[in-house]
Amino acid sequence: MPAIRSTLARRGIAAAVALPLLALAACSYGSESKGDSSKAKVAAGSKKIDGLDAVKIGYFGNLTHATALVANQKGYFQKELGATQAKYQIFNAGPSEIEALNSGSIDIGWIGPSPAINGYTKSAGKNLRIIGGSASGGVKLVVNPKKIKSLKDVEGKKIATPQLGNTQDVAFLNWAAEQGWKVDPQSGKGDVSVVRTDNKITPDAYKSGSIDGAWVPEPTASKLVAEGGKVLLDERDLWPDKKFVITNIIVSQKFLKEHPKAVEAVLKASVDTNKWINANPDEAKAAANKQLEADSGKALPAEVLDPAWKSIQVTDDPLASTLSTEADHAVKAGLLEKPTLTGIYDLTLLNKVLEAAGESTVDDAGLGVK
Fold it and tell me: In angstroms, how far is CA 92 from the centroid of its own chain?
């Protein structure tokens, strides 16, 4: 698939302030996945990759992480890792996943662009690399139609985002600024009130009337619609070709250097999974929902699952130029000083996998390892 080429000038000013990391739950980064492919059958004669007993993979319980959900459920990761066990941790927020990567609790993770940028700049470019793409789209502004009937009506209202400095928080603050509204990025107070709310409780906050709408990823957006909310804006409509990165694949630089064969195996599983998802959308939707149920104890009802699934596009392309744009949005919002992102990508192994599969290679928009 063709890469989106960056038309933005590269930025060369070192980062001095990164997106804020919120407090982590004590002694815990994420929950272990249940019913995962660590139980998948290992082919007879399979060997451990790079001598590893296990590869620890992190992802969110969101449909925007569909590749990881389906690869777990269908056993794609375990198939490529052979006798090396695929182990999983489920996260609710990017900062905790970055902390887990830094501590070695996970080796590879599916994560949004803002936490990846934050983690990279905070470590002065020493902790992670983005090694592939995973998904585009799947983010909407959903509002109470009784209180908000048009985009201009958002002014003066209370709008939820998942977390201070997360990908959707940055996107909403940037959009609000483009409307001419002023909002303090830290407190969320201003012409619009930004209420940072965990995705798990956002639907309840909406039902209680404590928020008037939310800029959120799927399936939270479709959960709000099921509660009577209206989609006022689909973030895809704000981007060229309606594409923007919502989920990347990251790896610790140490793990990438020491275990490239294991990283390549995970990337092959990802590419194979995306190909299967695109060829079998209904089966893939069911597989993702089954894994969500295994991880959270509750499957999504059809009225939430179906519209949510349609708004997400899985992709191997990391859409690198849109990462640059999202970093610019964070700078404009006052959450990030101009960062140096050169070296954040290493797409060498992904392009090797894509070439072997007869697929088009992807571009790092000039932000790759030199």
Answer: 11
